[in-house]
Amino acid sequence: MSEWPDDYDFETDELCQNVFKPFILNELDLLEAYDGQRPDSITYIFHEHAERVARDVEKTCLHMDLGKTVARNMYWALLPHDCGKRLLPVSLWDQDDKPEGDLKDRRREHTKLGVQIAEKELSDVEHPFKTLMVDIILKHHEQMDGKGYLKLGPEHLSKPVRLACLVEAFDGWSIARPHYGGRDITIPAVLERMRGEKAGFFDKALLDAFAEMKMAEYNRLEGPAP
Ligand SMILES: [Fe+2]
Ligand SMILES: [Fe+2]
After folding, report:
1. Residues 157-167 pLDDT 10s
2. Number of domains observed in the structure of the chain
């Protein structure tokens, strides 16, 4: 078995369909309800971010020729990655200043809280999909330089987790937020930052694959120059 989830198919696997799918859809509904309690002016909407990240991860897997099954399994594994956010006070988010220090750490507790939710709701289930999903929930704010939230180094970060970390970060940096000021958040600009000043955070080969997929998409959307 490779590090990529290729030994079951979420779309046909019985446990995935009967247990994990309802769990994930319910968590997305709860996150949407939580988003509903946040100010109307917000741009970074958690349940929409989850869907975008899952789709981008799926598309990157297809771009890397990992196959449809791996791509779909990864899509489903990414959807609930931020489910723990709903257990934090709503007032923690949507502040105008850049989150740093204690506030940043409190927010990032959503990784551990998400694991608690999954372990509680799915306590009697064992399946490689659950292992993958929980691993991503816990580690999606880690960095390859070992300076992420839990300070886990690359030896603890599987390829699926590494891909989750970079796609998740890309999406966060692509949405305008008050503390970004006038920073360029177009696709090429965010990718350039990730490959430049943030390069130590990410798995280079996976970032290259993601960037290639994303730039092809960007060029298609922009169309040929007039
Ligand atoms: Fe997160
Ligand atoms: Fe996220």
Report:
1. 999 999 999 99
2. 1
